[in-house]
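Methods: holo model generation. Sequences were used as deposited, without trimming of termini or removal of tags, and paired with ligand SMILES retrieved from the corresponding compound records. Each pair was processed once, and we did not select among multiple samples. The sequence and coenzyme A SMILES for this entry were:
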Amino acid sequence: MKAEIEIRPMKAADLAQVLAIAETLPEAPHWPQSAYLNAINSQIGPTSTPRRIALVVAGSQAGSVLGFAVASLLPPQAELETIAVAAENQGQGLGQLFFRALAAELKAAGANELLLEVRASNRPARAFYRALGFVQIGLRTSYYADPIEDAVLMSLQLAERLS
Ligand SMILES: CC(C)(COP(=O)(O)OP(=O)(O)OC[C@H]1O[C@@H](n2cnc3c(N)ncnc32)[C@H](O)[C@@H]1OP(=O)(O)O)[C@@H](O)C(=O)NCCC(=O)NCCS
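and the model returned the structure below.
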């Protein structure tokens, strides 16, 4: 699997698959297509603030998207806004591989700290983030709606982790 994958910037042509993957994952944020388009467009020039980096991990079959991630960038900080791997491709190290590529890009763009929020009940994602080196730095009570739930705030020092 890993030998056959490609990690590359998200394109408009990927969006049908990106939305389809998000649709099947209740834990993933459910953004409208316009939000992904904004993220794609903000990669093109340095004028939009904060700039975003949106990546997909694609399989060997032409155009097949296996996962995606979007981060916003306001150096020296960045925020991981979403990361998802299609259910049938989870648990094979793809998320970790994909995340490392994203983190390297963020670091190269001037970020030294990566922040995120995750639903307290999303134990697989919290374990995933811990495995990547994130530490909990706070809790936002009743931050999420539908259902109401706390957000766990996590941080990763990119400089220490990736140098
Ligand atoms: C979170 C997510 C991106 C992880 O992707 P993945 O490709 O399955 O993760 P990996 O296989 O690279 O796992 C890397 C490490 O994370 C941890 N991990 C991953 N999934 C886990 C799970 N379900 N339970 C416990 N630990 C887990 C493990 O330590 C794992 O290392 P190991 O396999 O050597 O034990 C994926 O589960 C996903 O898309 N979830 C739904 C969307 C979501 O919740 N996104 C986060 C909020 S935006």
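The first helix runs from residue 15 to 24.
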